[in-house]
Design goal:
alpha/beta, binds NADP nicotinamide-adenine-dinucleotide phosphate
């Protein structure tokens, strides 16, 4: 049976890997992106090449109307939802809190917290059995920063991911009776573009060697855990926060 999922920030990095892995399992995937249409189109093609169906959907997760629209398009074009990966997230260049502008912090919280909560809300509205949904699985992308704190780099981002952990705990209890599982994945240092976007392109490789496994992780290594949480193999797992950090 075909499953339909939506992945926010599915055009690059971890979201891209999760989209392609899900496509390889024959799932239909809504691939949200904010600006990089070419990258999103490449993911759509990769999913199609792997046997799945996908559409690219532009939208900002921090914008309520965009979020509602991306869910509506996914359902209209791919069918009722089975799962959602709340993945889109951003960092900013390293700064101490004492130097951070309110503008910077607002954007970090808007995308990483408000965006995650809006996407989780829209997921529940469509998955809940009491609303005619099938139940399903929500996977939230947190970060090891939620427990390490990211001092001197981005304590704003770390706090935002702490909110995502707490959402996984609370929402899983709230919507378990609706047939919805909610879990978080907490990646460590993963080689994606996010580090360059924060002005530190070599960050994962440079710091990855300090992890007990001695290296940075790959997007596919996180994508595998996401796809496991989406599927029936994890049917009794909810409210879990899974570290994919090489032991960091
Ligand atoms: P990435 O490589 O920078 O990719 C970010 C993705 O999110 C892109 O698809 C981007 O779209 C999209 N995006 C950014 N802002 C958006 C917005 N406001 N609305 C919609 N889409 C937006 O990031 P990543 O490393 O894969 O990270 C994915 C998630 O894992 C994030 O939540 C991040 O915080 C978390 N994480 C990553 C690491 C790591 O080391 N990489 C570690 C811990 C946690 P465009 O392509 O259109 O720009």
């Amino acid at each position: 049976m075909t499953r339909t999922i939506l992945i926010t920030g599915g055009s690059r990095g971890i979201g891209r890997s999760a989209a392609i892995l899900a496509g390889q399992r024959g799932w239909s995937v809504g691939v949200n992106y904010i600006g990089n249409k070419q990258a999103a189109d490449e993911v759509v093609k990769a999913v199609a090449d792997a046997g799945g169906k996908a559409i690219a959907i532009k939208g900002d997760v921090a914008d309520e109307a965009d979020v509602v629209a991306m869910f509506e398009r996914t359902v209209a074009e791919l069918g009722p939802l089975d799962g959602v990966v709340v993945n889109a997230g951003i960092v900013a260049p390293p700064q101490r809190l004492m130097d951070m502008s309110a503008e910077r912090m607002r954007r970090i919280f808007d995308v990483n917290v408000l965006g995650a909560y809006l996407c989780a809300r829209e997921s529940v509205r469509r998955l809940a059995r009491s609303s005619g949904g099938k139940g399903g699985s929500i996977v939230l992308l947190s970060s090891a920063a939620a427990r390490l704190g990211a001092p001197g780099e981005y304590v704003d981002y770390a706090g935002a991911k702490g909110a995502v952990d707490t959402l996984a705990i609370g929402l899983s209890k709230e919507v378990g009776p609706e047939g919805i599982r909610v879990n978080a994945v907490r990646p460590g240092l993963i080689e994606t573009d996010i580090h360059a976007s924060g002005g530190q392109p070599d960050r994962a490789r440079r710091l990855g060697v300090t992890a007990p496994l001695g290296r940075a992780g790959t997007a596919d290594e996180v994508g595998e855990s996401i796809v496991w949480l989406l599927g029936d193999a994890s049917s009794y797992v909810t409210g879990a926060i899974i570290d994919v950090t090489g032991g960091r």
